């Protein structure tokens, strides 16, 4: 893990607040758990484990407190199920956790949501290393005499990205890398956010048994995806079908999927999974639940991607479908509840009661502090239980005052494990004072998180 000075202190404090909230807010759920997995961060796509900084050079970050020397370049992550990702970071002052778990994320759930220059970062990614791997051609286009090494290209690209992602006053140490950074910074143009490699929309549906629940639409850049319902749903007679009612085991972009629930099915829930092998689009963001620095994709091998969607059914009463997504524009997590039943669904959130009428959809935003860990368990009728976890990471810290910096005469930042293992995996950003603080923060993340329970108000069941 790279050191990050004030950023780690703030993250640890916010997580401690979350842990205290969890201790006082968790209440008993309504019925046994049916589906208790999931996360608001992972809306579908690739999930991966951080491997470390692999190709890099040195850079110097300037601010009023002094100069900080940092390593700048390409990270590498291993994709669950197979594949490799190359990424740059877009959160300079936050530590990178070794072996952190990452998930593909929309820009709306990251600091890029409020960054007017996010599209320019994508332009840099598409017009530099490793997307442009002819370094002689890249050097000629950028006006870099003497050519570029891979280390120069990676460092120069990362420096140019930091100037837009963190509004950082940062320079590459190597003159060749600095020339490339200047060229990319000055030449960048706005590009649109790339679509997810694989997603399902909506992520949750509900309705009555005896019909088709959906549609759930597949969005992907893969040629095809495999479709699989959970084994317990199959044994209960629940099938995944197309709009013609025929079972589906594969789909393509735009395919509409439905849950076919038998008429005599008891109230319950089920989840389907789609999976494919594809390259993840350049410019997709990746975030971690362990408060590890946000990454942006620079390159992808053929990689495994997946997405899930759930269905809830009952023959009467409230029938909610629940999903969540981080919303950096509003500074919180959006909980979306759709009620396809014939009675209202009422729940209490942060002391405020909300009622979703029959046939209504409503989104409730849970406000959170920056860097705050959350762990929301949402329950409903029929044993419905959904859990959403993560860390709200919506702002970079470069523009904040009071960041701890390090002069060039002090040691270069190391990963947290270096003091124990002696292995330097290299990292970006921060001060060398952070390992113990950030390690404490990660421990708090494990036990921390605000807790929320949505409980159906007791009502006399409505009759058909």
Question: How would you sum up this structure, described in words?
Answer:
There is one protein chain. Helices cover 19% and strands 33% of the residues. With 464 residues, it is α+β, with helices and mostly antiparallel strands. The strands form six sheets. A six-stranded antiparallel beta barrel has the order 1-2-3-15-14-4. A five-stranded mixed sheet has the order 7-16-13-9-11, with no helix packed on it. The longest helix has 20 residues. The N terminus and C terminus are likely disordered.
Percent strand equals 25-35%
What is the terminal separation in angstroms? 58 Å
The mean pLDDT is 79
- Structural class, by secondary structure, is alpha+beta
Rg on CA atoms, Å: 24 Å
The main β sheet shows up as: 6 strands, antiparallel, barrel
Please give the share of residues in helix: 10-25%
Number of strands: 23
Helical segment count: 8
Low confidence ranges: 1-41, 399-464
Quaternary structure of the protein: single chain
Task: State the strand order across the main sheet.
Answer: 1-2-3-15-14-4
Shape: elongated
């Amino acid at each position: 893990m790279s050191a990050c000075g004030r950023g780690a202190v703030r993250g640890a404090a916010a997580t401690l607040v979350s842990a205290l909230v969890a201790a006082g807010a968790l209440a008993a759920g309504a019925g046994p758990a049916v589906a208790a997995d999931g996360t608001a961060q992972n809306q579908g796509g690739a999930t991966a484990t951080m491997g470390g900084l692999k190709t890099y050079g040195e850079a110097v970050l300037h601010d009023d407190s002094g100069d900080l020397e940092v390593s700048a370049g390409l990270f590498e992550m291993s994709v669950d199920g197979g594949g490799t990702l190359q990424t740059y970071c877009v959160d300079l002052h936050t530590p990178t956790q070794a072996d952190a778990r990452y998930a593909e994320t929309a820009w709306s759930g990251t600091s890029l949501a409020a960054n007017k220059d996010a599209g320019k970062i994508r332009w840099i990614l598409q017009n530099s290393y490793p997307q442009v791997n002819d370094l002689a051609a890249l050097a000629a286009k950028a006006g870099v005499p003497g050519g570029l090494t891979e280390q120069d290209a990676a460092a120069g690209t990362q420096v140019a990205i930091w100037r837009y992602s963190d509004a950082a006053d940062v320079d590459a140490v190597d003159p060749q890398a600095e020339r490339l950074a200047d060229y990319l910074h000055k030449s960048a143009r706005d590009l649109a956010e790339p679509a997810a490699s694989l997603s399902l929309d909506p992520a949750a549906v509900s309705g009555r048994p005896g019909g088709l629940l959906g549609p759930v639409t597949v969005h992907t850049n893969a040629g095809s995806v495999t479709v699989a319902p959970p084994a317990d749903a199959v044994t209960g007679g629940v099938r995944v079908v197309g709009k013609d009612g025929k079972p589906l085991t594969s789909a393509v972009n735009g395919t509409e999927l439905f849950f076919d629930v038998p008429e005599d099915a008891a109230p319950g829930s089920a989840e389907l999974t789609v999976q494919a092998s594809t390259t993840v689009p350049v410019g997709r963001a990746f975030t971690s639940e362990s408060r590890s620095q946000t990454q942006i994709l620079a390159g992808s091998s053929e990689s495994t991607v997946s997405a899930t969607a759930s269905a809830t059914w009952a023959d009467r009463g409230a029938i909610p479908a629940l999903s969540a997504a981080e919303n950096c524009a509003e500074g919180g997590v959006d909980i979306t509840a759709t009620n396809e039943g014939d009675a209202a669904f009422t729940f209490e959130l942060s002391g405020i009661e909300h009622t979703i009428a029959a046939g209504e959809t409503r989104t409730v935003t849970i406000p959170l502090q920056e860097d705050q860990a959350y762990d929301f368990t949402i329950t409903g009728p029929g044993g419905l239980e959904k859990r959403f976890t993560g860390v709200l990471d919506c702002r970079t810290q470069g523009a904040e005052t009071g960041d701890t910096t390090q002069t060039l005469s002090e040691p270069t930042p190391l990963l947290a494990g270096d003091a124990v293992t002696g292995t330097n995996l290299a990292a970006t950003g921060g001060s060398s004072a952070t390992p113990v603080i950030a390690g404490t923060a990660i421990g708090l993340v494990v036990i921390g998180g605000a807790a929320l329970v949505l409980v159906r108000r007791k009502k006399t069941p409505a009759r058909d």
